[in-house]
Amino acid sequence: MFPPRSQRILLAVLAASALLSAFSGRLNPYFLDVALGAGISVVLASSLNLINGFTGQFSLGHAGFMAVGAYASAMLTTTLAPRLGLSANLLQWGFFPLSLVAGGLLAALAGIAVGAPSLRLKGDYLAIVTLGFGEIIKVVLQNVDAVGASRGLTGIPSHTNLFWVFGSAAVTVYVVWGLLNSTYGRGFLAVADDEVAAEAMGLNTTRYKITAFVVGAFFAGVAGGLYAHLKGYLNPGGFSFDKSIEIVVMVILGGMGRHSGVVVAALLLTVLTESLRQTGAFRMIVYSVLLIVLMLTRPQGLFVWPLWSKKEGRP
Amino acid sequence: MSGPLLQLSGVTIRFGGLTAVSSVDADVREGELAGLIGPNGAGKTTVFNMITGVYQPTEGAISFGGRPTAGLKPYRITELGIARTFQNIRLFPSLTVFDNVRVAFHLHLDHDSVHSLTRGPKFQAEEVQLRERTRELLSIFRLERVQDEPAKSLSYGDQRRLEIIRALATRPRLLLLDEPAAGMNPTEKDELMKLIRFIRDRFGLAILLVEHDMKVVMGICERIHVLEYGRKIAEGTPSEIRGDPKVIAAYLGEEPVKES
Amino acid sequence: MTEFLQQVLNGVSLGAIYALIALGYTMVYGVLRFINFAHSDVFMLGAFVGWAAVERLHLPTRSFGGGLAALALAMAVCAILGVVIEKLAYKPLRNRSTLTVLITAIGVSLLIQNVSQNPTIGFGPNPRAFPELFPARQIHLGGLTVSTNQIVVLAVTVVLLAVLYWIVHRTKTGTAMRALSFNATAASLVGINNDRIISFTFALGSALAGAGGVLYATNYPSIDPLMGTLPGLKAFVAAVLGGIGNLPGAALGGLLIGLVETFVSGTRLSTFRDAIAFAILIAILLFRPAGLLGKLKVEKV
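The joint structure predicted for all components is written out below.
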């Protein structure tokens, strides 16, 4: 039966996003903004879920990948595109997605660099190293004049729209789901459970871990590009440890290693943070209390079915 | 193929100042049911770990099917045809019984990450086939009824069996069993002995087992290698070993060797 | 040459503070096998207690007695805080996976930071001036400029290290701590009250962090709720450098990181100063994860 059901669902979602995007002019600009932000969060959370939730590699530097993708695609649209003299449509529908992919690929390269330590380190240690890489990326960006250093990068054209965002979200979820739902994909989970046993069963644990980091980083890079062309400006400070933690919370809330749970958590949390934006300083307080309470009471995540199960999930 | 399936020549391993295994020569022939015994701390699991590539010998050589295994990573050695179980059961706890076995078919997959995304007809056909083979394997050992349960919910005895089945899914030519009878009662041990013989006969592979229970070892092994303090002190058939004074001396203070 | 010695002095003085903080990280790791992310915030609160001792409790400034009193107060408050955090947030997770506890620790850290930053219930985000606790004077020796504050830092650190050594090696509690760090199950089986020893370890580590906070603020008298992040990170790197779980290692590591940072600040790479700490961390974990003085645990197959 071709194409399989999962691909038909993907195409349906893409078509729906295209339709929605065409009518986006009619939508309340504030809601549109929130929706776009939520979609970007879905890409970030799903991609991190592959690394953390499914492959069990604790990565605290996801914002770093996002930053790489954001800056890469923004540099392309602000410095390269104008020289090519392309029409507006070509920019929006041709150049922009290419710049997103370019950003993703660069982020994927970073993913190899960050994933390499995972071959030798576990748990706490890996978490710290990934955190370190995230911070190093940020510091480097703060010191490179060509991308605006600490002043930031401005004047990024707003190419991001509903189609690109929801489309990317759908593709990300499809890729993560697809990868895992195969005999090959069970390997990620095996590596997460017991690396020694996985190796003994013939699984190349190195390849699995690197693959997880590379794919996860790629989509984080795409999310970064989408983010850059939504906000219009970039500042390295926005890709700090705090941002990485926000994404980690979404993955945990959604129940590390549950596709649908993570999507729901990403959407919910983005909306929640938006509505708390009024309360400003209290937002992060609520956030941190939420995190602690969650870990104490329901470490398997909020959206794990059945809701009443007491079993501890992946963490 | 001439020559033994697995060959250890002068295998030695040192950890810092400690020599855990010293100049061990041993071999396992195709389709043979062999045993590796010795008092605690003799180095048996260390030998297993060297065969499977978890440790590299400091001196000496190991070859499998005529091929030296030096420097190969564990998954490559499994690719060559050696599978194992562990002393402390190492199943994949969060996977189902079914998936524990299915994932071990990995080595013989035609598809990879890209195919998981394109999901074309060949991919789907192979997936169906793999599920069928997994179900088949599980039903041979009568575990298909619990195939959707998480592996960690099985009884201890069933978990041990599952670990063996999982190793079989990699289609090994040599199966290493690390204390398969540990923690079993006499009835379970009898079942295990039948199971091991059955596996060797049905799948035509060689089996090397490390075991403390003499009844099991004497009962099914065709040839037994004996280690003490990292050195091999004897090798032979069960009756030869039973009467060997060096072996008896090594086990002095432990349970007397039982007649099978 | 005097330039070099001056840098060494500055580096040692900074390193001493990192050592104090690093000891807290390493003690908790040794006993519980987890990285207490909230430790750097206890350090920050120590500085604020020192500030409050003068601004709210009106302890005298520019006096050794007053300074030491403020130091002691900060240490006491932080010790209590450390125990409270442990009992509320970490103890319930004693048998959960490392990742769960790690995330909780991150949550606690964020909570403390954000509550402190809050203008209504906390201190507000803006930096404030730290009062002059000890009478500050510059002494000129040869070509060197030594500030009395630096001497205070060194003296206090040496005393605290000596006390710590005495506790760990000459008291029953200290022996119990060491036993716990080797094997928690065995420790409980020989009659050690693991919970009490763990609380004691937290209290000790937090007290040292509190002292570090006051001393740090003495030398760099501008405090704000986020001041703990960078020093905390560098102290953590120091602990890993020395071998996480190893007490002399933490002290050594602190010293080394302090020296490296001071020397790097004097070069062109100074803006990358903070990234250097991360780079060192990654290098250690990749090439010598056991640290300089530590021993790597091998997983039994």
